[in-house]
Amino acid sequence: MRQAKIGQLLFYDKILSGNQNISCGTCHHHQLGTTDGLSLGIGEGGEGLGALRTAGMGDDRIRKRIPRNAPALWNLGHTSIDVMFHDGRLSVSDLYQNGFNSPAEEWLPQGLPNILAAQALFPLTAQFEMAGNPKENEVAGAVHDRIDAAWPIIAKRVRVIPKYGQAFVKAFDDVTTPEDVTIVHIATALSAFMNREFQSFDSAWDKYLAGTPLPHDADRGRELFFGQAGCSGCHAGPLFSDQDFHALALPAFGPGRTRRFDPMARDVGRMGESDALEDAYRFRTPMLRNVALTAPYGHNGAFPTLERMVRHHLDPAQSRADWSRDDAALRPVPWIAAIDFVIQSDRLEMARQASVQDINIGPLTDAEVGDIVAFLHALTGQKAGNQEFLFGIPDTVPSGLTVDRMPGDDARVRRLRSAAD
Length: 421
Hints:
Number of strands: 7
Number of domains: 2
Number of helices: 16
Shape: globular
Structural class: mainly alpha
CATH class of the largest domain: Mainly Alpha
Strand content: under 5%
CATH superfamily of the largest domain: Cytochrome c-like domain
Helix content: 25-40%
Largest sheet: 3 strands, antiparallel
Radius of gyration: 21 Å
Strand order of the largest sheet: 1-2-3
CATH topology of the largest domain: Cytochrome Bc1 Complex, Chain D, domain 2
């Protein structure tokens, strides 16, 4: 519990970012279903939260949108998870003798206890997420030299704050003085918090498994989901994901997560990690618990509602044709607006993306679509839906930096019990 309490504070403390202006919680907020409510986020340099977040001003303004939709954090500590990120660029592996195959390769530190702890390190070093631009701060400059050069700088920032240093000494057996605190301890604390805070297995579906009937429409949706519609072919297991990669032929927009040699603002998905042509435009199957809380949907947040996302699965070609730029939840950023939809002008790239498709559910009636949506709502945890959390959002953080909150909405995020118990 002590490690998780430290993690709660760090999760909302902007001390972890290069310019000390953004926290993990900015893009994965309690009050926004552990996401940011945007199709493509406004990262380092922005101000505010969710639909109210702005892109900053002057030299501090953002230079690029976050290329992909902010993934939700529900149940990421589950033991069945061995791959993370939309393209799977982090996975459990002995390839580099540190437990993981990751963008840090052999420079990922030893001793990380799980994949969630490993995942926590990478936003800290991402230029447009938390690190900032190379000449702006020492963290970003270090990342520019080599990814692992930044983590000791961040660890020192944290451990020299007395409240953090003392808390780590109490929480970790191998930390006898604050000087012993490393980035591994920070990542471990963050993972302990996320694992405890965002576990969610108290939905109507869980009650159904224990013998309580679902509402009639959700039960009809259950039969379709596991039967005729075939949704469970990919959305399988306790988390409703096969942890594999599939192409949905979503509408394309945004800067894309390009490879170094890509000449266009496109996103090739899993192929960007594997360099295998058969992985082109395929993305990790999202987990569906609490999915009703995490709009918009898709790896780029293309669809604003669950119904639209379900309908896309029925007829991707027609869905792409019907899709409008207004469907994307993009905050206005005039100085980069020219590239928001530039990929759609590339006829050949659009044809390539449309040609790769792994879904073929076939026609369903409007009533059947509604029933599937009702079943997806039945996957919402009771505590998550009621904004009841073990820790919640801290009132303050040890650095003294501001804590991001939705205006006038603090009372909605409640603690189930004191984290100090």
